[in-house]
Amino acid sequence: MSQPGIPISGGAPAGLQAQNGAASASGSLYTNGPVQNTLMSSQVSVSQGYNSQLPGSYPHLIPAKTLNPVSGQSNYGGSQTVSPLSNYQGPGQTLYRPLVASNPVTTSLHGGSVPRMPLPTSQNAAATSMPSGSFLPGASVQPPSNWQYNYPSTGSQTDHCPRASSQSLSGNTNLTTHQYVSSGDPSLQNSFIKSGITPNTNNGSMVVHNSYDEIEGGGFSATPQHTNKNPTMNRSVGYSYPSLPPGYQNTAPPSTTAMPPSSLNYPSGPQGFNQTPLGANHLTTSMSGLSLHPEGLRVINLLQERNMLPSTPLQPPVPNLHEDIQKLNCNPELFRCTLTSIPQTQALLNKAKLPLGLLLHPFKDLVQLPVVTSSTIVRCRSCRTYINPFVSFLDQRRWKCNLCYRVNDVPEEFMYNPLTRVYGEPHRRPEVQNATIEFMAPSEYMLRPPQPPVYLFVFDVSHNAVETGYLNTVCQSLLDNLDLLPGNTRTKIGFITFDSTIHFYSLQEGLSQPQMLIVSDIEDVFIPMPENLLVNLNESKELVQDLLKTLPQMFTKTLETQSALGPALQAAFKLMSPTGGRMSVFQTQLPTLGVGALRPREEPNQRSSAKEIHLTPSTDFYKKLALDCSGQQVAVDLFLLSGQYSDLASLGCISRYSAGSVYYYPSYHHQQNPVQVQKLQKELQRYLTRKIGFEAVMRIRCTKGLSIHTFHGNFFVRSTDLLSLPNVNPDAGYAVQMSVEESLTDTQLVSFQSALLYTSSKGERRIRVHTLCLPVVSTLNEVFLGADVQAIAGLLANMAVDRSVTASLSDARDALVNAVIDSLSAYRSSVLSNQQPGLMVPFSLRLFPLFVLALLKQKSFQTGTNARLDERIFAMCQVKNQPLVYLMLTTHPSLYRVDNLSDEGALNINDRTIPQPSILQLSVEKLSRDGAFLMDAGSVLMLWVGKNCGQNFLSRVLGVQNYALIPQTMTDLPELDTPESARIIAFISWLREQRPLFPILYVIRDESPMKANFLQNMVEDRTESALSYYEFLLHIQQQVNK
Amino acid sequence: MAFTFAAFCYMLSLVLCAALIFFAIWHIIAFDELRTDFKSPIDQCNPVHARERLRNIERICFLLRKLVLPEYSIHSLFCIMFLCAQEWLTLGLNVPLLFYHFWRYFHCPADSSELAYDPPAVMNADTLSYCQKEAWCKLAFYLLSFFYYLYWAPSTARPFGPSLVAPSPHVSIRGTRTGTPRGSHAPGRGTLGHYMRVLTILLMVCNLVLIR
């Protein structure tokens, strides 16, 4: 939607090409621009959406993409995106299932160590992005032709560039009464576009399915790169075949020539493949670490089995649902529940002692997002639930809501399926085929016209601020990204600066230079000139650029040390209240003047005691102002660049309740701390260019019987289930806690639906709906088996932040430990029949003690003297506001050995080979002096180089001759012309992609000051004030066995 | 004069108790209003409505905060009065609530004083349901104590001044049961009890009207 710089084009092929980012009309479609842009455009972010977390899914990206061009994407794209899913419901598939299952050809094909790559490559020799590895030649040459042309309107077989045919198709689509927005939004890779229009779009959609597949199958990251795999690899390939992307599956049926290649058959092909192994072969699941396989049923004695951390990123458990339903379920990165099997009653939930809640990342950038434009949005008449894949159709004309069980009528126009252009198939509609979907809201959803994007920047220009030199960086970043700000012709922009007075800047069109207006009455702030302070960006762009260029120099001589933040915020609020929008506040010290002035509260020598620290705001001025802002649809993002204590606990409220975000740069200085400058630059770039939604509200509904009682995140709860979000951004995560109010004994499935209504930066009102469906279980054992340990840790962290604010930090720490003890003793006493010695945990919770220990050592909850109050509070803000993936990274960083990176198992994304080293346990014993280790802690990357590290690594990666020459502070790796350097740089930049906070890389050698930080993150080891993992386990065992 | 201090305490408590009942009812209504936004879902999502709703929430929270201190001080006043009047039983019944109030008042997790009922905290469904339950419990407690004071007041006064108040609780109770004031039956003695009953009914009516 709000892709900056990328034109929206109607249906022209060229425009659609642009959808894939850098790929231009030149035909180099498959280089896949998105990734190349890195953080710059949200396009990138879009493309990266699903993948960042799931390296496992990468291998398929390329094949799918390369496959597409060949496969005559035109009409298929449209149906394809839906078909892999939709077919499951179709009655037809059952027919084919046995057929494929019994097909000897297939099995032999996969049983053998035939790598996956060959198929696509052979199909598509011309695919540009394929690394020409060792591929089996001619594994299947026919496939594409076979299914490519099922659709009657496609071009000839040899047509590799089916645009022509697509044109006609798109025309057809437009004739339909409620057409799906075709190509409406580059970023959103609308899959309902009649495929023919956009080869690339298809790619996008394919990709997503692949990753979905991967997620669901928990796919092994099998590598397309090399043919000779070790035995395990072979197995994994064989077994995980079902999780192959549709692209592959499509290729298979033709090879089994028994199947008549008619258009009817096509859809069943992939299905058959998907279903056979899953249905028939339980090993499939076992390979991918699902909760249900034998491994998952295992009880583990943590004291005996030490190495429980998987070497690949931990996959979320897959709900124990019928496969047809699971196929349609929401991606766990968007919507995740702590218990993938919902307990039937509150009593059962209480017995399990595990928290029940949801973790959401609703506005995540997505590669593929179906967008539906329809004059009526079908919703349940009593509970207003949006129609979703988990409703049941009683007959053609009626559907039963899965949340309140009311039977509703299917509206007349819903009977027509614009995708297949068939009447009377309401269950094939995209709304019913996608758990994540976006609706264009009709006019009844907006009583006032959608607000224009409004950006107001508020700069601290007191002496202290000028000293840090941040204005240069910020103004330069703004200048660079001015054209990339998400918006349209209505975009407005304004600036305010303040020290002890407040300065406004008139940017009226026609002025020769910006005019500064000073208001010195901070007791009663007024706006000196209501118009021309917020100006249209396009009309006054030159003035704005002028101002940004001169602003850093304007205050260099200032001697004013006071800071009147409160009055400045009031002024900014007054300025923005007629429209709403985003206010970015840059503050460098404790506010000292006017309303909202604060006093220093931190006492450094008291840091160690967990009791007397000030986690609560000292004034409610900021909270009240934030609520006012929320009411006027203004969100405040706070950038705190401060050397000393600035009372983030109080200041942070301004962002917390107005749904903004907080950025914190401790001891920022343009000369003394260049690392922070780089960090600020990168993060500003993402901040300014990422997608944004205005005047948003989010509502989370759940099946009758469940109730939501607490929300976590940055927002204001307007009525018990409605979150008011003046702005919503792709980097914000939310969590909710739930309870079981009524017994769910009558139901098999429960559903959760989050609906986010927002105004895009293009001025459209849109509703993004995610629906998650989970099974209900009646026994404690099943509840434990379905536990999602990452989600539980995330939710516990959120709850612990609340607890430390309302009670105390030590209370929160105790609560965290008790959460482990309680649940494990519940497991021991109620599930395990024989009381063995040791610490027995269900497989699903094997990492629970580790994650809780990591939380205890996380900056928010750690004890000890090394956490400054502001840093601690910032960490707490992050816990509340970050999506789960990043929260888990900051809590339990990933450690990789990087001095011996190889391409084995590497991912391949858009021409780049990204090595995938295995994740090590966070313990010093895993380090060795002759290696180099990279720790990815979410917002920081640390490369520890051992003393005896190989000369090879030093010279070829770090570019130094010997260990002693590694600079004391080194934050960049030189780009050397060696494969080792290329690999590690590719790996690091891959890790950095899409992070909301830019992780700075620190190269650490033995004497570096950062070494302490590095060791601090070794959560399995003992630190000055915290237990080691083994001691912690012993402690828990003691408590559990009591 | 038989009109003892204890009797006075009971009478005063009776009146103030009515006020407390009124407070409790108001609380229940307020929390209910906070909980439910009486707008259609589409209206709720409307940005213009956001402002109204937010103002409403802030107003309610402001009033809630205003009422905290009066309520607590009225209740503490009871306790002090009963302490002075050496009405140990009544005092004992009131002390738990007194302690609860103290705990509530001093347990505010705040550096600032205003955090009781601050909008973001109250809007949490958990807190809201807790507050609502609390309000219902208090309503029940105040209602019970209202009747307790109503019928205990005469009994405390009896040994000293049978002429002023009802001779025994029995009479009053019978009076309520029959539902009709029995004017013929010792008009002088039942005056106060009668008056109280009328007051009660009036108060109830007032409350009902206010609830609507």
UniProtKB/TrEMBL annotation, chain A:
Q: Which Gene3D superfamilies match?
A: beta-sandwich domain of Sec23/24, Sec23/Sec24 helical domain, Severin, von Willebrand factor, type A domain, Zn-finger domain of Sec23/24
Going by the UniProt record, its keywords in alphabetical order are:
Cytoplasmic vesicle, Protein transport, Transport
Chain intervals for the UniProt region annotation (Disordered): 107-143
- Compartments where found: Cytoplasm, Cytosol; Cytoplasmic vesicle, COPII-coated vesicle membrane; Endoplasmic reticulum membrane
> Is the Transport keyword given for this protein?
yes
This protein's membrane topology, according to the annotation, is: Peripheral membrane protein
Q: Does the keyword Transport apply?
A: yes
| Domain named Gelsolin-like: residues | 914-988
* Database matches in Pfam families: Gelsolin, Sec23_BS, Sec23_helical, Sec23_trunk, zf-Sec23_Sec24
- Stretches of Polar residues bias are at 120-132
Major place of localization?
Answer: cytoplasm
Domain (Sec23/Sec24 helical) ranges = 788-888
Q: Which residues form the Sec23/Sec24 beta-sandwich domain?
A: 693-777
Which ranges carry the Zinc finger Sec23/Sec24-type domain?
377-413
The Sec23/Sec24 trunk domain is annotated at 450-688
Spell out the family assignment given in the record's similarity comment: Belongs to the SEC23/SEC24 family. SEC24 subfamily.
Q: What name does UniProt use for this protein?
A: SEC24 homolog A, COPII coat complex component
Automatic annotation (TrEMBL), chain B:
PROSITE patterns on file: CORNICHON
Look up the domain of life of the source.
Eukaryota
The residue ranges crossing the membrane are 7-29, 72-95, 135-152, 194-211
Per UniProt, the keywords (alphabetical) are:
Membrane, Transmembrane, Transmembrane helix
Q: What is the membrane topology listed in the Swiss-Prot or TrEMBL record?
A: Multi-pass membrane protein
UniProt xrefs under SMART domains: Cornichon
Predominant cellular place of this UniProt entry's protein: membrane
User: Transmembrane helix: is it a keyword of this entry?
Assistant: yes
What is the protein's given name? Cornichon family AMPA receptor auxiliary protein 3
